[in-house]
Amino acid sequence: xxxxxxxxxxxxxxxxxxxxxxxxxxxxxxxxGTPGALAAEYYAQRASMGLIVTEGTQPSDDGQGYLxxxxxxxxxxxxxxxxxxxxxxxxxxxxxxxxxxxxxMSHPANTPHHRQGVAPSAVAPGxxxxxxxxxxxxxxxxxLTTEEVRRTVLDFRHAARRAIEAGADGVxxxxxxxxxxxxxxxxxxxxxxxxxxxxxxxxxxxxxxVAAAIAEEIGADRxxxxxxxxxxxxxxxxxxxxxxxxxxxxxxxxKLKLAxxxxxxxxxxxxxxxxxxxxxxxxxxxxxxxxxGEIGADVAAGLADLESYGQMxxxxxxxxxxxxxxAPMNEANRTAFFGGNERGxxxxxxxSEAQEA
Length: 357
Ligand SMILES: Cc1cc2nc3c(=O)[nH]c(=O)nc-3n(C[C@H](O)[C@H](O)[C@H](O)COP(=O)(O)O)c2cc1C
Hints:
By secondary structure, the protein is an alpha/beta fold. Helices cover 32% and strands 16% of the residues. The protein has an eight-stranded parallel β-barrel with strand order 3-4-5-10-11-12-13-14.
């Protein structure tokens, strides 16, 4: 486990350790997408992580799918995020803002504009989502025109610029977990007949164009991407060609020399080993539900350069100290994951506070 606590280069930065906070939506932003008042405190509490990846943040109006998620495209968003980046930097941490376009994982009741969601194709995900009036079926989205797909690439690019203006160290493109980028990858969500649908090359095109556009805008060494090869969440089915698609996509992304690739692992170990070979740069690995005793194993084995953790970091602001000292961890309160106030957000005690209590 000791290798976890050694510095590592990520893009243009040197991080103090090889532990990353996985991106986690907390739905506590203001209605206009400006981060909530407690966001800076929440992230600063966790600044001893080598890298913080923020909650998914929409690059445009249409990118929002859930209630009260933050954005990064208006002046108010930039000013709001500035509080977080300043607070994290003051404690020596590093922060990448995750750019998340929800695509078809969106309900009109959740957004200020109440528009129909947009996606590669007009195919509903076949699932439900929380709205102000409770769980509701997600309606079919509207298919983006080819011109609109190109404009969406520019929305990502603009948001990346704004993230840098807000003081972020970089951005992570959310290409995982069944949201817009992955909707382009999966034939179950993408039935397009233009250059963004059909063949592996065409389905991968959107992800590559977004990454290339952002790298051009803010530098490849501040641009990263997260992928979840093979996920079956929310109507995503990448089919038998899935592994081949990822081998192609990762090899193409590798040419861009991005800051890192973040894999949200879904269980295909052979594909993961291939990705490790195809990707010459920094790899962050997230294994959902990883047991505490396994923390550090992937870095020790050389399968990953950093490991990311979600729920354990959510519940333990001093996760790094607790690991180093083999101290017990707070349990995450799932009922406070999304929305609400400081409860289950900024009130998880650090070790010293817990011992004093
Ligand atoms: C409350 C919550 C919100 C999440 N939101 C996001 C998100 O916005 N973007 C993302 O890529 N993953 C998101 N995830 C997935 C996590 O990044 C991570 O992959 C997952 O929790 C598994 O890791 P863990 O077992 O260490 O928590 C979320 C997970 C949780 C628990």
